[in-house]
Amino acid sequence: MNPASSLWRRLLQRMSGAVLRRQALPPAAQLGRDGEEAAYWHLREKGFIMVERNYRPAGSHTEIDLIGWDGATLVFVEVKTRGPQSPLFPEAAVDQEKERHLIAAAREYRRHAHRLSVPVRFDIVSVLASPGPAGTKMEHFRDAFRETTVAKTAR
Fold first, then answer.
1. Is residue 133 in a domain?
2. Residue 130's pLDDT band (cuts 50, 70, 90)
3. Distance between CA atoms of residues 121 and 145, nearest Å
4. β strands within the chain, DSSP E
5. CATH code, 114
6. What SS3 string covers 129-140?
7. Spatial CB neighbours of 43, under 8 Å, sequence gap ≥ 6
8. HSE value, Cβ hemisphere, 13 Å, CA-based, for 114
9. What is the pTM for the complete model shown?
10. For the chain, what is the mean pLDDT?
11. pLDDT digits over 58-101, tens only?
């Protein structure tokens, strides 16, 4: 990465973070927002082209945290963030019911965006936030679940 693009990326990250910090949220919601922001930049650095944040189909309670392209694959990303005191890993919060809701929302997005025939993938980004020198730990689970697997187990 050349120095100019690196400088530009850091400037955008700072500006994005400043806008998010201005919105007053309860601590748990702020932790989740910070995790989504970290995941967004992490995926961009890995080459994803991000096209949507916090997509919610009309009339739905389900929200897809991040949507982006990884090459020719449209990727729907669920971000789960937990603090250091959490007894479970963040990714454990994505159960089959959550997967079914995400798949339905992804179908609606694909229909609305006229992208029904493109390859898709469902990823989970797990963020474990720790204050101090330990910092934030992030794990990216590519292809965490599939549309066909969830549909079969729902019967």
1. yes
2. confident
3. 8
4. 49-55, 64-70, 73-82, 120-128, 137-145
5. 3.40.1350.10
6. CCCHHHCCEEEE
7. 50, 66, 68, 77, 125, 140
8. 0
9. 0.80
10. 86
11. 999 999 999 999 999 999 999 999 988 877 889 999 999 999 99
